[in-house]
Amino acid sequence: MSLKGKNAVVTGSTSGIGLAIARAFAAEGVNVTLNGFGDAAEIEALRAGIESEFGVKALYSDADLTKAAACAGLVAYAQENLGSVDILVNNAGMQHVAPVEEFPDDKWDLILALNLSAAFHAIKAAVPGMKARQWGRIINTASAHALVASPFKSAYVAAKHGIAGLTKTVALETAPFGITVNAICPGYVWTPLVEKQIPDTMKARGMTEQQVKDMLLAEQPTKQFVTVEEVAALAVFLAGDNARSITGALQQMDGGWVAK
Ligand code: NAD
């Protein structure tokens, strides 16, 4: 069965990995709801570009997913305007880098809200429709940091380990209903999220910019950043029929990082 005509919500899809995932689904004939922040004109150009390039419907919502009600609202918006949410990609995320004793309380709360609780609230809203239709795909963009830690990223690593547990739990609950729930665990992907943490990491570790980049890639035996297109292709595979027996998986795509 092709994915053509299915409806997807991809959170945090105005940039980076989420945008690549939304475009990859659209290329398969999936209607997409984009979400995230950024310049209104640039986002409209992305949305309209997806519609004209791939001949699908593309919606956009600026829902702030650090707010629980906005997560359910985003799912409801897609259901009302597309008819269903068949594929939910919980991808929106942010990072902050600081030693734990200096880690700002508000950053901890925001990162837990966006990188973990938002996925819970969106899943809770989307699962009833998926159960009713006996088909659904939930894909969480986790991280290698769902499996291993790095210093100075307490909130991010805690949230990503949390999403690993959420993925496995919901996979068990929904398995009898034709729904799969998986997490993709990328290593370092060159996106604005990684670019923005370079200055803070330079400060926290007393390093130059080049030293920070070398340190990031030192984690990955391939010595290459993962690309957004690679992550998107895995998301499309996980939504397809050949992945119907993959559920509750924490799928690494990290150049060998966590194998070490
Ligand atoms: P990015 O900064 O390019 O994109 C983040 C997206 O989230 C943007 O669209 C942004 O507007 C949106 N966003 C931010 N705050 C939001 C909010 N409150 N409500 C709704 N949307 C919001 O980052 P990225 O690197 O593409 O990251 C995407 C996901 O991939 C994140 O969950 C991140 O943790 C994960 N990830 C990234 C890497 C990496 O190396 N880049 C590695 C592993 C996992």
TrEMBL record:
<dbReference type="InterPro" id="IPR036291">
    <property type="entry name" value="NAD(P)-bd_dom_sf"/>
</dbReference>
<dbReference type="InterPro" id="IPR002347">
    <property type="entry name" value="SDR_fam"/>
</dbReference>
<protein>
    <submittedName>
        <fullName>3-hydroxybutyrate dehydrogenase</fullName>
        <ecNumber>1.1.1.30</ecNumber>
    </submittedName>
</protein>
<dbReference type="GO" id="GO:0003858">
    <property type="term" value="F:3-hydroxybutyrate dehydrogenase activity"/>
</dbReference>
<dbReference type="InterPro" id="IPR020904">
    <property type="entry name" value="Sc_DH/Rdtase_CS"/>
</dbReference>
<dbReference type="InterPro" id="IPR011294">
    <property type="entry name" value="3-OHbutyrate_DH"/>
</dbReference>
<dbReference type="InterPro" id="IPR050259">
    <property type="entry name" value="SDR"/>
</dbReference>
<keyword id="KW-0560">Oxidoreductase</keyword>
<comment type="similarity">
    <text>Belongs to the short-chain dehydrogenases/reductases (SDR) family.</text>
</comment>
<dbReference type="Pfam" id="PF00106">
    <property type="entry name" value="adh_short"/>
</dbReference>
